[in-house]
């Protein structure tokens, strides 16, 4: 787990999703155009990729630390300590990235 992922892990401390819900933080993706120009955060869409920080008791297919792909408009967005996070249902997760 990268140091950024470890730092973000603290965001879930003291928070337990209920039922089949999953608490996810967005992964940092540095986006570049074909010409090599970096796209500023204000011009980018939110990533559909994140790291699972906490899971509800009914979640069966993902675990804390998994890097997942989820539906673009799914879940409830919230801000914790200036980080944008997402709470979504397990069914909104499309897949898990493997090494």
**Which H/E pattern describes the elements?**
HEEEEEE
- SSE-based structural type: mainly beta
Rg, Å, rounded: 14 Å
CATH class: Mainly Beta
**Helical stretch tally:** 1
Which CATH architecture would you pick? Roll
Mean pLDDT, to the nearest integer, reads: 80
Structure report:
By secondary structure, the protein is mostly beta strands. It has a single domain, classed as Roll (10 Kd Chaperonin, Protein Cpn10, Chain O). Helix content is 7%, strand content 34%. It contains one helix and six strands; from the N terminus they run H-E-E-E-E-E-E. The protein has one helix spanning 3-9, and strands at 21-26, 49-55, 67-70, 76-80, 83-89, 93-97. A six-stranded antiparallel sheet has the order 4-5-1-2-3-6, with helices on one face. Strand 4 and strand 5 (83-89) form a beta hairpin. The longest helix is centred in the first third of the chain and has 7 residues, at 3-9. It is globular, with a radius of gyration of 14 Å. Residues 1-9 have low confidence and may be disordered. Keywords: Chaperone, Cytoplasm. GO terms for molecular function: ATP binding; metal ion binding; protein folding chaperone; protein-folding chaperone binding; unfolded protein binding.
Question: What's the SSE blueprint?
Answer:
Layout: H1 3-9, E1 21-26, E2 49-55, E3 67-70, E4 76-80, E5 83-89, E6 93-97
Antiparallel strand pairs: 1-2, 1-5, 2-3, 3-6, 4-5
